[in-house]
Amino acid sequence: MVSHTSISRKIFVVCNYTFLMALSLLCVLPLVHIFAVSLSSGAAASAGVVKLWPVDFTTAAYENIFNKPQYFTAFWVSVKRVLLGTSINLLLTITAAYPLSKDSSYFRARTVYVWIFVITILFSGGLIPWFMTVKATGLMDTIWALILPSAVPVFNVILLLNFFRSLPKELEESARMDGAGHMMILWKFYVPLSLPALATITLFSMVGHWNSWFDGLILMNNPDNYPMQTFLQTIIISKDPRFLSAQEAELLLNMSDRTSNAAQIYVAALPILLVYPFLQRFFVKGIVMGSVKE
Amino acid sequence: MQKFLRSERLPLHLMLLPSLAILAVYSYWPMAGIMIAFEKYIPTKGLFGSPWVGLRNFKYLFYLPDTQRVIINTLSIASMKIVAGLIVPIVIALLLNEVRKSMFKRAFQTLVYLPHFLSWVILGGILIDLLSPSNGLVNQALGVFGIQPIFFLGDNNWFQFILVSSDVWKEFGFNTIVYLAALTGINPTLYEAASIDGANRLRQAWHVTMPGIMPIAILMVTLSIGNVLNAGFDQIFNLYSTPVYESGDIIDTLVYRLGILQAQYGLATAVGLLKSTVSLILIACSYFLAYRFANYRIF
C-alpha cells in the first residue's frame, strides 16, 4: 500500500491514537477507581477524595468480607454451580451436537431433532410458566435449580455442531470401516479434534454460570442458597436490610458503604479477571467459529 | 422394533435423549404453561384446575396505565441500543484499522472487551458508585466545570441516555472484533487499485472498506431486529428505581413485578405471551431476511 505522509495524515494519526487511547482508558479507569476506593479509608471515600489511587490505605473493607460467613457461603454456592453446571453443559452439548451434525441422508430423524432444538430459541413460554415449571419439578432452594433448567445451551450446541461438520469426513469413514461405533468415533476423533472449540464453549459456560444472578434471586427462597452474584445484587443494588446485623450496621457506619461495596464488587469480579487472559485468547476464535460455515 | 434396536443409528437417538428430556421439561412444558394467561391461576389448583377466564387478562392489560409506558420505553431503549450498538463498533473498527502498530491494536482490544465479561450486577454496582450525586467521580469531574451534581440514575431526563451509553460501553469492544475480522478479510489489492486511481484515505475507507463490511453489518442489523422487545432486563433491573419507572420501566421488568413480586400470574403470563409472540414473528422475519440477503443459516 502506498503510504502518504502528508501533514494532514500525520495529524489524523496522532488524533486517532489519542482518541483510541482515551477510549481504552474509559473502559478500565472505572474499574481502577473502584479498586482504589475499596482500599481507601471510609472517611476518604465518603469525602470523595479518592481518584485512581487509594487514600489512607487500608484493607479493612476486605477484612470485613472475610469475617462474613454469608459471603463464603455465597462464594461456595457459586463455585459448586460453576463446576457442576459447566460439566453438565459440556457433556450435553457434546452428546447433542454429535448426532445433529450427521447428514440427514444418513440420520433421517436429524431434521426433526434440529427443529426441536431451534424452536426453543424462537419461542418461549415466558418467565412465569418457566418459574412454575421449576417450582413444580421440586428444584426450588436446591443447587439443581441453577443447573438443570439451563443444562442444554442450544446456542453452544449449534456452534459445536457446525464445528463438527467442518471436520474431514474421511476420518470418520475410515474409522467406521474398521468397525468403530458412534461412541468411539465421538470420543476418540471428534472430541480430541475439537479441543479449541470445546475450550471456548467451556469458558463461556463458566463465565455464564458465574455471572448469573436472576435465577438465584427468584428460585432461592433461603438467602443461604444465593450464589455470589445474587447475594451481591441483594446487598449492593437492592440494599436488602435482612443481611445487616446491628453490629454490622455499626461497622458499616464507621467504614462507609462505599468502600465495603467496592471491595465486595472486586471479590465477585476476581474469578472473571483471573480467567480473562484465557477468555480473550479463545473468544475471537469463538466468534469466528460461530460465523464461518461451509 | 427389533430392527430399530439393532440399528447403528440407535446410539445417535440415545445420545440425544438426555438433552431432549431437559428441553421437554424446561422449554416445552413452560410453553404449555401459557394456558395460565387465559386463567385466573390459583397455584393450589394447578394448571388444569384453575378457572378459565378467556381473554380477561388481556383486556385488563389495555386498561393498565403501565402498559403503554412500558411498550414505548421498551421500543425506544431497544432501538437506541441497536442503532448505537451498530454505529459505534463500526467507527471504532475503522479507526483501529488505520493503526499500524499491532502491539497497540492488541493492547486496545484487551482493554476494551473486559466489561463484556462482567455481569450487570457488578457493572451496576460500579455505575451506581461512579454516578452518585454526592461523591461519584463523574459528578466531581463535572463540578470542575461548575456544573451542579446530576442524579443520573434518578432523573428521567438522563436515565435512558445512561442505559444506552453504558450498554454501548459494555458491548462495543466485543462487537468491534466482529467488524475487525471482516476488515482483515478485505483484499489489499483493492486499496492499491483505489490509490492508483487517486483515492485518498477517506475515499478508500468509503469506497473499499465500507462495502467490505456491509454484508456483516447487514447481518448484525437483521439479527438484532429480533431484539426490539429486549431492552436489557439485566441492566435495567440493576440500575432502575421507582423515580425512573417513567423512563426506564420495560416489559420484562413489568412482568417480573407483576408475576414474581405481586403474584398476578395470569396477567404476567399474558404480557409474556404477547411479547414472545411478537418476538417470534420478528425473529422469524429477521432470520429469513438474513438468509436472503446475507446467506446466513443458523444450522
Short key terms for the protein model shown above:
heterodimer, A: 294 residues, mainly alpha, 14 helices, 72% helix, B: 299 residues
Structural summary, described in words:
The complex is a heterodimer of chains A (294) and B (299). With 294 residues, chain A is mainly alpha-helical. In chain A, 72% of the residues lie in helices and 0% in strands. Chain A contains 14 helices and no strands. Chain A has helices at residues 7-38, 42-47, 60-66, 69-100, 110-122, 127-136, 154-165, 169-177, 182-193, 195-211, 214-219, 228-237, 246-255, 257-291. In chain A, helix 1 crosses helix 14. The two termini of chain A are 31 Å apart. Chain B has 299 residues and is mainly α. Chain B has a single domain, classed as Orthogonal Bundle (MetI-like fold), CATH 1.10.3720. Chain B contains 15 helices and no strands. The two termini of chain B are 31 Å apart. At the A-B interface, helix 1, helix 2, helix 4, helix 5 and helix 6 of A face helix 2, helix 5, helix 6, helix 7 and helix 9 of B.
What's the quick description here?
The complex is a heterodimer of chains A (294) and B (299). With 294 residues, chain A is mainly α.
